[in-house]
Inverse folding.
């Protein structure tokens, strides 16, 4: 019974650590040369801005869902006509889910570190290709 209690406490502390880390990332919205802003919309046309890491691979622009908060990802798939701000320039794109082969290539080209995965609670990773429109 004591082991169950210890495991439960460790799990609760870990979950709190992940929630705090994810909340701070969302609050501070890191930016820099490897960041972009994606502007998605819901079914009512309301727009949402989210800062994401930009992935360039083979001349294509990609973003990845690397965290548990993922409303932007769901909106991009439901309404794939998105706006993207890269280096201060805004352009229109279509958000396209990648194939399994493309996913594997991107995962190998842009690996996530173990510390990052630990701090974010080992979320699944999904890529979106941003095709100009």
């Amino acid at each position: 019974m004591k082991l169950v209690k210890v495991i439960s406490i460790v799990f609760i502390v870990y979950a709190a650590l992940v929630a705090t880390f994810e909340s701070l990332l969302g609050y501070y919205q890191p930016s820099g040369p490897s960041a972009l802003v994606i502007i998605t919309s819901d079914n009512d046309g309301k727009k949402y801005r989210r800062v994401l890491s930009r992935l360039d691979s083979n001349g294509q622009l990609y973003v990845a869902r690397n965290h548990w908060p993922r409303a932007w990802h769901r909106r991009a798939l439901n309404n794939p006509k998105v706006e993207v701000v890269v280096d201060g320039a805004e352009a229109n794109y279509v958000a396209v889910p990648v194939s399994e082969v493309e996913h594997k290539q991107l995962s190998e080209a842009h690996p996530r570190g173990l510390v990052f995965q630990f701090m974010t609670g080992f979320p699944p990773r999904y890529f979106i290709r941003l095709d100009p429109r």
